[in-house]
Design brief:
five-stranded parallel β-sheet; single chain; about 170 residues; 2 domains; Rossmann fold; 5 helices; alpha/beta
């Protein structure tokens, strides 16, 4: 009786402030095989954008809790190839907005002795109309800052109103 190994699919990313775009990416990646492995980048290895807000293990735990994920791995702080070589995937799925060039990824995988198909996931289209769904961590962070500014402005306005209603003190 011949046994076949499951198709191991690999997705990777920072996954800081999980959002529907992350879920879409991982659901699409999971559909490309039987076992979905996800590598969560360490804070030290993130150099192409601001450092993550959430700690490494918290981000890994959140990714592991998602239904399409079979295995969530913490990335290596200085050599991203180590967990990829350990997993030895059959398919590596890049996120639609990840900065990696597919041909460069294929070349790197070949140099590590990994025979692997490289695919790119599609982007998620907002389901509730344009602008109503936040599909990136940077959009979430921007919205948080907008709300903080609005809250601060309301607080200042309330303080000014309260101050302007105070009766004038007499100085005799």
């Amino acid at each position: 009786m011949e046994t076949t190994n499951p198709t191991d699919v690999l997705a990777q990313g920072t996954f800081d402030l999980l959002h529907p775009g992350h879920v879409h990416y991982l659901e699409e990646a999971a559909a490309m095989g039987e076992q979905l492995h996800v590598i969560v980048a360490t804070s030290e290895s993130v150099t192409h954008k601001p450092k993550p807000i959430l700690p490494d293990e918290q981000r890994r735990t959140m990714v592991a809790a998602l239904e399409p994920v079979d295995h969530a791995h913490r990335g290596h702080p200085s050599d991203f190839s180590i967990p990829i070589r350990r997993i030895d995937p059959d398919v590596l799925v890049l996120g639609h907005d990840q900065h990696h060039d597919e041909d460069d990824v294929r070349t790197a995988l070949e140099s590590w002795g990994i025979e692997c198909e490289v695919r790119r996931a599609s982007g998620r289209v907002p389901r509730n109309g344009v602008g109503k769904e936040l599909l990136s961590s940077s959009a979430i962070k921007s919205r948080i800052l907008e709300l903080a500014v609005e809250s601060e402005e309301r607080t200042r306005s309330t303080e000014r109103e309260r101050h302007s209603r105070r009766p004038l003190e007499r100085s005799d």
